[in-house]
Amino acid sequence: MRVSLLDKRNIVMAERIVDEAKNKKVFVAVGASHLAGDGGLIARLKAAGYTLSPVAK
Description:
Number of helices: 2
Shape: globular
Radius of gyration: 11 Å
């Protein structure tokens, strides 16, 4: 269940974010469970060469 809900979705989400970010700056909001770990969006986007910045209150 975890693989389908997070890992596979993170792959697709990261690919879509990278495609959008090629042409413009993007703001992405996702649930916290998509961020952590080696398969999370943070790791995937950093591996793709992007610099990520958290939004502070």
